[in-house]
Amino acid sequence: MSTVRARLTPEESRSAALEAARTLLIEAGPQAVTLKAVAGRIGRTHANLLHHFGSAAELQAELARYLSDRITAAIGDAVVRARTGDADPREIVDRTFDAFGREGAGALAAWMILSGNKDALNPVLEAIHRLVDHLGQGHDDRPVHEITLWLVLAALGDSLLGAPMAAALGLRPEKARELARSHLLSSMGVAVDGARP
């Protein structure tokens, strides 16, 4: 009995491939995000994905772009809701740390840098810059750019070395996240218990 493959539009095929690549990234790390592995996940051929992406490096660059759009949208939403009092500001830190850790953005960024594919990070950096510029509008009294810099670097560092470093220092694995939460609240003029000072 033969199996019939569903016909997908080029856009549906690309979307399925990117979601499969994201899943592989989370499950097995950036080295697992190959054209062959992604093709196998979505029931397509290596040649089909080569047609859509051109190379494994381009697939990874598209994955970085895909992740950055998802990540910046989620973080932007958390910031807006925190500003209106509809969310705890700690959610901003949690979403950022989760994006770089659990979602694999930190490992993917490091992989791309170490493999010499630094230009592939440009869409990520541009997405963050657009978000920060948007969030900074009308909030000139807040150091949005500086907060973003230390928060992203803290989340990236934690995703790559946080747990082993915390263990080496005799600290809990989530200590960096807790410090980032406290620092964010302090920069917003909010006491750690949630009350304004």
Automatic annotation (TrEMBL):
Protein name per its UniProtKB record: TetR family transcriptional regulator
DNA-binding region: 34-53
UniProt KW keywords: DNA-binding, Transcription, Transcription regulation
Any one GO molecular-function label of the UniProt entry: DNA-binding transcription factor activity
Species name: Allosphingosinicella deserti
PANTHER family assigned: HTH-TYPE TRANSCRIPTIONAL REGULATOR BETI, HTH-TYPE TRANSCRIPTIONAL REGULATOR RUTR
Record flagged with keyword Glycosyltransferase: no
Pfam families for the chain: TetR_N
Limits of the HTH tetR-type domain: 11-71
